[in-house]
Design goal:
The structure is a homodimer of 218-residue chains.
Chain A: H1 5-14, E1 22-23, H2 26-33, H3 37-49, E2 53-57, E3 62-66, H4 68-85, E4 90-98, H5 103-108, H6 111-121, E5 130-133, H7 138-147, E6 151-153, E7 156-158, E8 161-163, E9 166-173, E10 176-183, E11 191-195, H8 200-204, E12 211-217
Helix pairs in contact in A: 2-3, 4-7
Chain A binds a DNA duplex (19 and 19 nucleotides) through α3.
Chain lengths: 218, 218
DNA sequence: ATTACTAATCATCGAGTAG
DNA sequence: TCTACTCGATGATTAGTAA
């Protein structure tokens, strides 16, 4: 992604392009960005090609809307500024419990991970994860998490395949000690994986779709 | 200011460059920004020349710190993202009453302004302004105000000089109707000028240095 | 190991203009 | 009016290298 694309997205967002298609001529955008109509036109084309915006090119004015990928880029940027201007040592993220595909459990069974968890967290987690789907304004907070260091979990090789690195953050759900684990090579995700010594769903009586507030230590 | 300078400032801020000098080699910065050491070096020089950062170039690693002008640029950017992700129709800014130089009163006496105020606000303001000095985290909110449209006040010419355009926002102090006026050609400022039908300082018993909370309508 | 100069490369921009 | 092409000018980046 080109460096100035975030800036372009920002201006579209300021005009309401997050919620809906907004009418925005290349000249308008160019003026707002301090560039020519031609450059603005090209930027819009590039944003579209990169899947950052959707475009509705009518016969008159084009209309643009920020796509999911573009929203994510903006949230990332916003998260950086929150980290700069509102530094905190704890943060609460709320999500809804969602049943994973059992992938979490597979990873948690790997010795390469288990050993590191015992060393960094002081316990070997239950072989299964509580997945929390994060939505709406809570996503900005997730972006903050992505930008933080956390406790590093190294990647390794086993059984002929490679297991990527990750980072964990100590956290609490309803007073119970747990941790969030995030892959380093993070594709766009809106799901938090929570691990704990115990089987959280059972211990806390969390059902599918229940809202869960996670108090995370940064 | 070059477009990529904000991004460079952001990375310095993320490393703590807002509070103190932080050790930051051009290679480190380059890696963080995804550019070469040479480019990072040049960017730092440009930021310094533009007065956006201070630099302490020791014999080994240089140390950088974000200057007032750089902080302002970051706050402006942050304000944009707040407007995008936390839209509000009202906002409270707190400042401390400060005695202006009587400049406010001079401008308020101009017919060109008075007539417009009567038309847009419904009253002719008292010939004098309550100045509020804004500091700390409240400055980010001021930046939000700078980005908003407000009610436009046109510039004009009178007595052989030109009076610049401005924008006003309806507001309330302690329940009393008032308005904030901001020049369009805004130099870096941390002072809000509040106008009202009445002599606010007297009516509300506001003394020099008193904290005043302003509830602004966006 | 630094920072930063110069020169060559490459990306970006906008004027002109077509559709 | 609008979008968006080509292409020459401008500006940014990097490799090489000095200090």
């Amino acid at each position: 992604m080109k460096p100035y694309h975030v800036d372009t997205l920002k201006h579209i967002a300021l005009r309401g392009g997050l919620k809906d298609f907004v009418s925005m001529s290349s000249r308008e955008l160019g003026t707002a960005l301090g560039v020519s109509q031609q450059s603005a036109s090209q930027r819009i084309l590039e944003l579209q090609d990169d899947g950052l915006i959707q475009r509705d090119l009518g016969s008159r004015k084009q209309r643009v809307k920020i796509a999911a990928k573009g929203l994510e880029a903006l949230q990332r940027e916003y998260a950086d500024y929150i980290r700069i201007f509102e530094p905190r040592d704890r943060m609460t993220i709320t999500g809804r419990a969602t049943s994973g595909l059992g992938e979490g459990a597979f990873y948690m069974r790997q010795r390469g991970y288990k050993d590191q968890f015992r060393k960094k967290l002081g316990y070997e987690p239950y072989e299964g994860t509580l997945n929390l789907k994060v939505a709406g304004s809570e996503l900005s907070k997730l972006m903050i998490l992505l930008g933080e260091k956390g406790l590093p979990i190294d990647g390794f090789e086993a059984a002929g395949r490679t297991f990527g690195g990750a980072k964990v953050f100590r956290a609490k759900v309803k007073g119970v000690e747990c941790a969030v684990i995030l892959p380093i090579r993070t594709h766009h995700t809106d799901v938090l994986e929570v691990i704990s010594k115990d089987f959280l769903r059972g211990k806390l009586g969390i059902g599918e779709g229940d809202p869960v507030a996670l108090d995370i230590e940064l």
